[in-house]
Each structure stands twice: as structure tokens, then as C-alpha cells.
């Protein structure tokens, strides 16, 4: 009747098993089926094979009826029956009988069904095997062979520094087939003497191997013994059949039990919903008195600690300092290791033994510390807590099995200071090491009537983070100093992580979050890690430099922005996913989290000061946000008090919606003007003069795009002159400058801008891509192809650079190469407009080679009476539309008419050239250029073709 292993331990120091629920020997069908597979532990044959016997089932057992078993949902394995029957005899004797019936439904269930493991403690238990058989096609096949039983000493908790002496009787069935049923029965006789003859147990009413047809738990006990039980599942029945033999029978049954599925996101105590508890302890007072008796021998033995007590008294007369020294000794000089065989599961080792071996488990170390403090005249009492049940202790039966960890309580006036002797990674005075946020604690002394509440964690300071960026000049790389201080649990977890991995890996992990939020930063020197004097806290300082990627342009080039991530407040609130839940959600560690992100500038960054607060308060958390700016700084602050440890399923939607509302505020942005405040007036004057020039006609701009290009150029010139933009963003400005110059026909100036961009940021593909277009317009077709290929290497998925190479190949007369590029582009997908232009060029390239242009461009044709532009151009080339009809379609959109006519006349000229009608081609090229749409590639190519025709005429 071994209870299921705790599903989750949320404290790294809480690996101590104080509960005999993990030490009772025989696993019920529920526990054997529900426990997750244990970590692979070293196994060796037992010293003697006489660790079990074959015997008939006891006469008092009443076989469970299999009549009327319910239909179960599909599963690789069905547990048709899980039957546990226990009889209590005189003198505290316990006989536990178990019978199980499994059915294999598919090959996926063969492995899980074929292994039978019975775990017991040979120091007080005797194992009897009653039967083992396979039912196949209605026939019973006996499989109970003593030689098939392997007795293994398996210390499955060794990785948690616990040796419990348990033994495993392991049977692996041979020749198991789909459709077989496995029936087996066994008994364990004996009980842990540590409970002094009182009966306590926990049993599961579900299984994780699969759904269960019938779970039955039967207890026979002398009528005079007062044994309580508790269960919470609504579909279980409890009956007390009448008897005449002086025994009381309690029968618990549950049918059609769903498969237990462990959810790591569910609060640990919720995984106990299917637990059936038994306890002969009538009250918490009885449990406290029992605990006092277990601790008493270890507390009476003073001599082994006399020398250490004298040493501490000599070192200080201050009680607080003495408490700290005693705590340091037990936490750091007595290592954690548990030997929990038999009564040692709950009875501490003597002081002499612990001092001799210099190790002990939680109860050993708690007793040692209380003993030592008594010799220093400091009041202290051992206490028992649960690391999993948290605040639900009031819903458990009074029992030693309600606890799995031992700590101590130090007297503080009318209250207590709760300390954990196993937490070797703590620092600072004892008051800083006090634990919070655990379950109520039961003092191990007579007279205690109930567990006492321990401090809540919601008011504990968990983390303080301060990230400061400093920029001597905005145009140059800055520096970041990140100082994070972690308190209490988080400090100890960080110390543990630091001790368990190489320094480089640890530092890389620390820097990972910051580098994800602020890409491109480089670490400056080693991470500085130091304990905070007078606190159980750890301070981590990291330094970074560089990082152009910290800044990017916003929706306009007038503002560059940086992400500001308040991760110290964000992480405790982060949801695993947005899926609605049917179970409660365990949220982050309650407590107080603070973070500040600050940007300092040595030059004026902003025109004026600003400040904006934001507060959110709800039952789950309280969040205070503040942003504040001056002319040379900007600061963002967050203070989160996480109040709740769990979010009930009914609260899920409200909690999620609340987080979605505040989430953008935790991941916000800092916007920085790219034009220096002192240049603002000059920019306004220049824009005003440009507007007047355009209005008067003194400045020419044939289209809206050309007007915008002129305004953009004025703004970009002032941005570059302000020298506030870092290198990579300056490269982007040069690219945009080059594109605007090309739109105005100033191709040589544009070339210089693109070349400047490439020099500033050789890793960006946009510079070579823009220069390739510029070279194409200037008739440098070979250079355009080479530069487009450079862009393609930097950005292999950039279809624009391949398209430019296709055009350059066509203009250079490499029609086969152009066709290859255009076919690749058509196969890559793209929208209707893109496919239309690619089809146009492919049609011309194929026609130039004397190939089937109609077939080649068919894939780019869109059906319909009035397909979108440039389909009329493609149809005109294919002979499906006249030039006049295509011109009519160009006029459908007056705003785009000039550009469309520019394109249409250029492609009509190409068609004429391929048909060797040069005079017609000249006329169409002249009309293309006459549109004045300089920003269109076809305009520049029309100019090139017209000049080439003139050269041929000469």
C-alpha cells in the first residue's frame, strides 16, 4: 500500500522524504499502475533468494466479483480490477493482500502490462506470492514460478541522496500477447514499527496505466479500534457490511475510473484528489505527541555536540550570531544523505551517529540543530511540513503521512522563526534564511492541537533587477550594465545551478535572456557573482557593449525604437499556453519582483520631460508600472506582487484576459527621435521651402512618388547630419536615400548612396539589391547581375534580387539565363501581381529565343474579364488584347495611369523589337519616357533602349 510518489516538488531543497507513504512496502494495483516509471537506478541481486514465499491467499479475503464490470474507453491496457484488502490483527500486526487483473488490448500495452514489481522493506515486512496466471482464449495458464522472481536491491531515490533499504520483487512475463489477461495476487505481512501499532495508510483510487473497471479497498479491523478514512471523489461508495466476528469492515469501491493523467502545470495538491486516506490517529495532538516521542532520543543525547556548543559560545555572546553559527554548522558541515530503513523512515538518528558520519536527512539534521540550540539556550522545536500539500493541510486526516519534510521552529516571542537545516546554499543571518510559502507545520511536541500557519510568500522579496544602458553618443555602440539581485529561494536555486555546471555554460545561460531581448550585444568580461552582505541573496552583474540591433526604425524613419522588456515582472506571470483549462494552474513563485530599465545619454535625446504611471490590482497580483523621461534619460520601472499560487479553472479566462491587457506594457518600446532637437527648426524650414517650390512649379515632380521622394531626401539629410543613428540604421538611411534619388533620375548620386550603405553594413542584402537596380538603370548589366548575386548570397530567399538579375540578363541579351531565373521565380509562388510581371518578362525572353512564349507564360495568366494589372500587359503580348484595349484598362485607375502607360509602352516596344519593327519600337519608347514616371524601372529601361536604337541608326 505504498502511496504514489509526490508528483512535483517545487523547491530544490525539498527532496527529503519524511513520509512513510513512500516506504510502505506493497504497491497496490493503483500505486503500481499510477506511479511514473522511476529513474533507472543501479540494481543488484539480493543477498538471499529467501526473501519471499509461495502461499495460499488468506482465508479472510473475500474475492472481488467481476460481474457487471463496466465498458471502458479504448486504451492499450485496461485494469479490470484493482483489489486491496487489509486485515489488522492483535499487537499492531498488518496483513495487506492485493489482487490485480490487467488486459492487454494492443501491442503498445505489452511492455506496461508485462512487468510486475512489488516493493517492500524486508526489515519489517514479509512477502507472500499467491498466484500469477495468464488468461488466453478462456484458458488459464499458470505462470507463478519462483525462479522467475528476481529480488533486487533498488535504491530508486539514490539520486535524491536517500537510501531506504527497500527491495523489489520483479517479474517479467514471457510470451505475453495482445488479448491476454494477467491476474496476480500477493500479500505483505508486517508494518513499520515507527507508527507504534497505529494504522496509517494512503491508497489510490485511480491508475495512470489505463482506465480501471473496479477499484476496491477493504479494511478489516477490530471494532474497538477507531480508524478514520477520508476520500474526496464523488463517485466512490463506502459501505460497512455487518459482521459477527468482532471486526469492523469498511469497503470502498469505485467503478469505471478514468485514467489518471499527470499534468505538471496543475498544483501539486490537486494530484491527491483520488487519494484514500486511513488513520488511527484521532487528532493532530496525537500526531504531535507521537512525533515528540520519535525525536526525543536524538534530542536527549547532548555529549556529541558539547564541544561544538562550547566553540560557538566562545565565538559570540550574541544569541542571533550563535543561531547563525549553529545553522551554518548543520547546513554546511553536515551533508545531506538519508538512510531511511524501517523505523528510520521517521525516527531521527542519534546525535552521536550523525556527528560520526557527518551526514543525515531532514529529520536527522533538524534534531541535531534543535539539540545544538538547546545547549546554546535557544528555544527550538522540530516541526513537520508538507512540500506538496501547501495550504490544503486542513483537508487531510491527522496522520504522520500528511508530512514529507522536517524543519525547526525557533522561538521568537509569541511567534516562530521557521528554518530548514537541509538548505546548505543559504547565506546571511538566520532571519534571512526563514522559509515561507510552505504548508502549515506541526510542532513535534505534546500539547500541539493543530499545524501552525507558516509565513505567506506573497510579501517576500524575490528579485530586483536594474538594467542601465549608457550612450556617450547615440550614433555609436552603447554599453549595458545589468545588475540582478536574487533573494531567498531564487538565490539558492541560482547557487545550485552555478555549482552544477561549468562556469562558461552558467554565464552563457545567464546572458541568454538579455541577448534575446537585446540582440547584438557582446559580453564584456566575466560575470560578477557575489553574496549580498547581511542577506540570503546573490547579486549577479553582467556587462555588455555594442548591439546596433538594439535599435530599429519605427513606422517612420523619424523615430528609432528599442524594445524595453521588464522580464523580472513578466516571467512570474507568463502562461504556458492560452488553452482554456479544466484543472487549476500552478503559477509562479509568489512574492515581490522589481525591475528598472534605464537609458542614459550624454547628449540631449528628447525635447521635454515626461512621466506616465500605470497600476493594475486584482486577486491574483498587483502591478505598478512607471515610465519617466528627461532630456537625457528614459526609465521604465515595474513592481509586481504575485499574490496567488494557483489559478482555479473557473478563474482561467479572467486571469488570461487580464494578462493580455497588461502584457504590452511589460514588453514596451522606447522611441528616440532620429533628428536632433537643435535641427528641428532647420528641418521645418527646409520642408516649408520645398512645399512652396512644388506649389509654384519651381521644383519639378511629375508624380506623387517623386514629391514624396523629395520630402524624404530632405528628412534623410537632416537625420544623417544629426549623427544620432547607429551604423546599421545609417546604412538603411543610405539605402532609402539611394532609392529616392533613383526615383528622381539622379542615378549617380543614388549609386554613391548604395555604395555607402554597403560599406556601413556589408552583411545586409538591401544595399547590394538596391545597387543592382541602379546599375541596371545605368546600363551596367554585367555589374548588375554580379551585385544581384551578392544580394542573393546574403539573403537566399530574396526574390527581388533574382528578379533584378533576370532583367539584367534579358537586357544583356542572355535570354536563356533570364528565362531560368523567371521560371524559378514563378515556381516560388508569390501574389498575382508579382506572377504577372514575371510572366511578362518570361514571355519576352522565350520569344527572343524563338521558343513557345505562349506556353511559357500561360502559368502567369489569370482568368476573368477584368483581371488586375499587369494582366492587360501580358494579354497584349500574348495577342489576346490590343494595345488600345490595354491602354483603356490602364485608365481604370487615374492615380496609376501614368505608371501603367509607362510600363505598357515599354513592353509594347520590346514586342516590336522582337518583331523587328524598330520604328514602332521608337514610337512606343518615346511615349514611355514621355509619361515622366522616372521612379518606374521601365522608364529607365525605355531611356536605355531609345539611346541604343539611336546608336544603331548612326
From TrEMBL:
Keywords: Signal, TPR repeat. It holds the Pfam family DUF3857. Transmembrane segments: none annotated. Residues 1-32 form the signal peptide. InterPro entries: DUF3857, Papain-like_cys_pep_sf, TPR-like_helical_dom_sf, TPR_rpt. Residues 92-259 form the DUF3857 domain. TPR repeats lie at residues 731-764. This is DUF3857 domain-containing protein.
Amino acid at each position: 500500500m505504498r502511496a504514489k510518489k509526490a508528483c512535483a516538488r517545487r523547491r530544490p531543497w525539498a527532496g527529503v522524504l519524511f513520509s512513510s507513504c513512500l516506504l510502505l512496502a506493497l504497491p497496490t494495483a493503483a500505486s503500481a499502475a499510477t506511479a511514473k516509471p522511476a529513474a533507472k537506478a543501479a540494481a543488484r541481486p539480493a543477498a538471499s533468494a529467501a526473501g519471499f514465499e509461495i502461499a495460499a491467499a488468506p482465508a479472510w479475503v473475500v474475492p472481488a466479483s467481476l460481474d457487471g464490470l463496466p465498458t471502458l474507453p479504448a486504451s492499450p491496457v485496461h485494469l479490470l480490477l484493482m483489489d486491496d484488502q487489509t486485515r489488522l490483527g492483535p499487537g499492531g500486526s498488518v496483513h495487506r493482500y492485493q489482487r490485480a487483473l490487467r488486459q492487454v488490448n494492443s501491442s503498445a500495452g505489452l511492455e506496461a502490462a508485462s512487468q510486475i514489481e512489488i516493493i517492500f522493506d524486508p526489515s519489517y515486512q514479509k512477502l507472500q506470492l499467491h498466484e500469477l496466471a495468464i488468461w488466453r482464449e478462456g484458458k488459464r495458464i499458470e505462470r507463478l514460478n519462483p525462479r522467475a522472481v528476481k529480488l533486487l536491491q533498488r535504491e530508486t531515490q539514490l539520486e535524491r541522496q536517500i537510501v531506504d533499504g527497500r527491495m523489489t520483487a520483479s517479474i517479467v512475463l514471457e510470451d505475453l500477447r495482445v488479448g491476454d489477461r494477467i491476474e496476480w495476487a500477493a500479500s505483505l505481512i508486517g508494518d513499520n514499527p515507527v507508527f507504534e501499532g497505529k494504522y496509517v495508510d494512503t491508497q489510490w483510487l485511480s491508475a495512470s496505466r489505463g482506465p480501471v473497471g473496479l477499484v476496491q479497498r477493504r479494511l478489516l479491523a477490530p471494532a474497538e479500534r477507531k480508524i478514520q478514512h477520508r476520500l474526496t471523489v464523488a463517485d466512490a461508495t463506502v459501505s460497512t457490511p455487518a459482521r459477527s466476528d468482532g471486526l469492523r469492515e469498511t469497503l470502498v469501491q469505485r467503478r469505471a475510473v478514468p485514467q489518471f493523467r499527470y499534468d505538471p502545470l496543475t498544483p501539486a495538491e490537486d494530484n491527491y484528489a483520488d487519494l484514500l486516506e486511513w488513520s488511527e490517529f484521532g487528532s493532530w495532538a496525537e500526531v504531535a505527541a507521537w512525533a515528540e516521542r520519535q525525536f526525543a532520543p536524538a534530542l536527549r543525547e547532548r555529549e556529541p555536540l558539547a564541544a561544538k556548543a562550547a566553540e560557538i559560545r566562545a565565538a559570540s555572546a550574541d544569541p542571533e550570531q550563535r543561531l547563525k553559527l549553529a545553522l551554518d554548522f548543520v547546513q554546511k558541515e553536515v551533508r545531506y544523505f538519508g538512510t531511511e530503513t524501517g523505523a528510520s523512515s521517521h525516527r531521527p538518528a542519534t546525535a552521536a551517529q550523525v556527528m560520526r558520519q557527518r551526514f543525515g536527512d531532514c529529520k536527522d539534521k533538524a534534531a541535531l540543530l534543535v539539540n545544538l540550540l538547546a545547549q546554546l539556550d535557544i528555544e527550538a522545536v522540530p516541526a513537520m511540513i508538507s512540500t506538496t500539500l501547501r495550504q490544503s493541510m486542513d483537508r487531510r486526516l491527522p496522520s504522520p503521512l500528511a508530512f514529507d519534510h522536517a524543519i525547526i521552529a525557533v522561538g521568537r516571542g509569541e511567534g516562530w522563526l521557521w528554518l530548514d537545516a537541509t538548505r546548505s546554499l543559504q547565506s546571511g543571518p538566520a532571519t534571512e534564511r526563514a522559509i515561507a510559502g510552505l504548508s502549515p507545520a506541526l510542532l513535534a511536541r505534546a500539547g500541539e492541537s493543530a499545524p501552525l500557519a507558516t509565513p505567506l510568500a506573497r510579501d517576500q522579496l524575490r528579485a530586483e533587477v536594474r538594467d542601465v544602458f549608457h550612450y556617450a553618443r547615440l550614433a555609436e555602440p552603447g554599453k549595458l550594465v545589468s545588475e540582478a539581485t536574487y533573494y531567498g529561494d531564487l538565490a539558492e536555486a541560482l547557487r545550485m545551478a552555478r555549482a552544477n555546471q561549468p562556469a562558461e555554460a552558467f554565464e552563457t545561460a545567464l546572458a541568454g535572456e538579455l541577448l534575446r531581448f537585446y540582440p547584438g550585444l557582446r559580453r564584456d568580461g566575466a560575470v560578477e557573482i557575489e553574496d549580498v552582505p547581511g542577506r540570503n541573496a546573490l547579486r549577479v552583474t553582467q556587462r555588455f557593449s555594442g548591439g546596433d540591433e538594439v535599435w530599429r526604425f519605427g513606422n517612420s524613419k523619424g523615430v528609432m525604437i528599442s524594445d524595453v522588456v521588464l522580464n523580472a515582472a513578466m516571467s512570474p506571470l507568463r502562461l504556458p499556453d492560452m488553452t482554456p483549462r479544466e484543472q487549476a494552474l500552478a503559477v509562479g513563485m509568489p512574492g515581490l519582483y522589481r525591475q528598472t530599465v534605464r537609458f542614459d545619454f550624454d547628449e540631449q535625446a528628447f525635447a521635454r520631460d515626461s512621466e506616465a504611471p500605470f497600476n493594475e490590482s486584482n486577486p491574483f497580483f498587483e502591478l505598478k508600472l512607471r515610465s519617466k523621461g528627461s532630456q537625457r534619460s528614459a526609465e521604465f520601472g515595474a513592481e509586481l506582487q504575485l499574490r496567488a499560487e494557483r489559478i482555479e479553472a473557473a478563474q482561467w479566462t479572467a486571469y488570461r484576459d487580464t494578462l493580455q491587457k497588461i502584457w504590452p506594457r511589460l514588453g514596451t518600446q522606447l522611441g528616440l527621435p532620429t533628428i536632433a532637437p537643435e535641427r528641428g527648426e532647420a528641418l521645418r524650414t527646409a520642408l516649408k521651402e520645398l512645399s512652396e517650390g512644388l506649389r509654384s512649379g519651381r521644383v519639378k515632380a511629375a508624380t506623387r512618388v517623386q514629391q514624396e521622394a523629395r520630402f524624404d531626401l530632405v528628412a534623410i539629410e537632416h537625420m544623417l547630419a544629426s549623427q544620432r543613428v547607429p551604423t546599421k540604421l545609417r546604412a538603411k538611411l543610405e539605402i532609402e536615400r539611394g532609392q529616392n534619388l533613383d526615383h528622381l533620375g539622379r542615378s549617380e548620386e543614388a549609386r554613391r548612396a548604395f555604395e555607402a550603405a554597403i560599406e556601413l553594413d556589408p552583411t545586409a542584402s538591401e544595399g547590394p539589391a538596391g545597387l543592382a537596380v541602379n546599375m541596371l538603370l545605368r546600363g551596367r548589366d554585367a555589374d548588375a547581375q554580379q551585385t544581384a548575386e551578392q544580394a542573393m548570397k546574403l539573403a537566399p530567399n530574396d526574390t527581388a534580387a533574382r528578379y533584378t538579375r533576370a532583367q539584367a540578363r534579358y537586357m544583356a541579351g542572355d535570354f536563356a539565363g533570364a528565362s531560368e531565373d523567371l521560371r524559378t521565380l514563378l515556381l516560388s509562388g508569390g501574389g498575382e501581381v508579382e506572377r504577372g510581371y514575371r510572366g511578362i518578362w518570361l514571355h519576352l525572353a522565350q520569344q527572343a529565343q524563338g521558343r513557345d512564349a505562349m506556353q511559357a507564360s500561360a502559368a502567369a495568366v489569370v482568368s476573368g474579364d477584368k483581371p488586375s494589372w499587369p494582366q492587360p500587359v501580358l494579354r497584349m503580348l500574348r495577342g489576346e488584347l490590343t494595345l488600345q484595349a490595354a491602354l483603356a484598362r490602364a485608365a481604370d485607375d487615374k492615380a496609376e495611369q501614368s505608371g501603367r502607360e509607362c510600363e505598357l509602352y515599354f513592353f509594347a516596344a520590346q514586342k516590336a523589337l522582337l518583331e523587328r519593327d524598330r520604328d514602332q519600337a521608337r514610337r512606343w519608347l518615346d511615349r514611355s519616357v514621355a509619361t515622366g514616371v522616372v521612379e518606374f524601372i521601365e522608364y529607365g529601361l525605355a531611356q536605355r533602349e531609345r539611346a541604343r536604337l539611336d546608336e544603331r541608326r548612326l
